Amino acid sequence: MAQSRQEPEAFADVLRRIRQSKGLTQREVARAITMDFAYFSRLESRAFKSVPTRATIEKIASAMQCTAEEKAELLAAAGRVSEEMQRRPELRRLYRTAAQLSPAALEELVQHAEERLQQQRPPSRKRQEADDATQNS
Amino acid sequence: MTRHKIPDVLRHVPCLPTGRQGVCLQPSPPPSRFWRHADIIDPIAESYASLLQTHHGFPVQAEALERFLEYDLKLPYNWEDIAEPAGVRVLAQHDPSSGAIIANNSYADFFEAHPHLLASALSHELGHVVLRHGELYADADMPTLPGMRMSSPFLHRTGSLPWGISEDALKRAVKVAMLDDRVRAFLKPERFEPDWVYTQAQRFAAAFMIPHARLREALTASPEFVRLPNWPALYDLARRFATSPSMMRYRLEQLGYITVHGKQIIPGIRLQQRPLL
Cβ of A36 and B66 within 8 Å? Predict the structure, then answer.
């Protein structure tokens, strides 16, 4: 529990770590997406408070040929998540943690969550309607 | 006076993994203006050059040097828009407090077009880091240029000269500043690093990009240059070392292979005393 309460890794550090894990230089990544070198440098500086937009992060991720997990990690570190997630920090925490799990462990977690959901409440009306629709067709 | 700590980035340097060839990086003694360049700076610079060579090949290409700084030496290396005082060119900077090497983003396009000049600028700043010049400067209350965030005193009054950028006005201003005390006061040279610090970093950069053994090899392979030094051959030599002609000229002059009188090059004292051929 104590571990999950740690300060989340800053976007700057996540970006630098992922870039360095690929052996790329700042100039190479910035050049690939025609971004200002100094701007890219600032993104890797913790002193620079603002975070890039989702579109920018996606461009950076594709220039670095990031895996889906790495991209999700970048987006999460920048707080670029769905609006609901932005309102609910515990969801962000869950997402960040889950993004680092192995596919099998993640699947297990999802199944567990679904079971819990089943116990918690009866199927929603929407779900019932959807089920009815499939039965009718 | 508080002095800068040795940046962490250098603590690990003497014990860097240097591969099968057993390349050993030479640590620098504390900075002093009384070093004989050939005895102190050249061996240090060439030890860095041979490490770079084992990892990234030779000559020193800009991209390889960037990787060398970031991945092998683990130096912080960033791009920033560096404010330039009027009449001064700042291609890159060394921030002694963090040990970072900062390339001036204002010259991004220039560097893209002339990567060998980025390599020269980065080599020069590496010289400051390796030769521990940061220790010469106090932590706080550095004199800075008015209205500028100037984290580092590493501005080069004569910075444009060795890079081959034609900047006649600046050259004149610098020459005048050296002669005329009133102009010197106006330019406030105390805001810039002392010349010897600049010169040492420059010597490091030249020896790093043009190690003596390789230069000797190249000269032995071009007997016509040795017999009759000339500019086209010097430019060609510079290309082979992926460096600027002015850096090559500087190195050849410093090692005594050539002497330049105006536009004329003649064989230097080293060639006259001990001919290569």
Answer: no
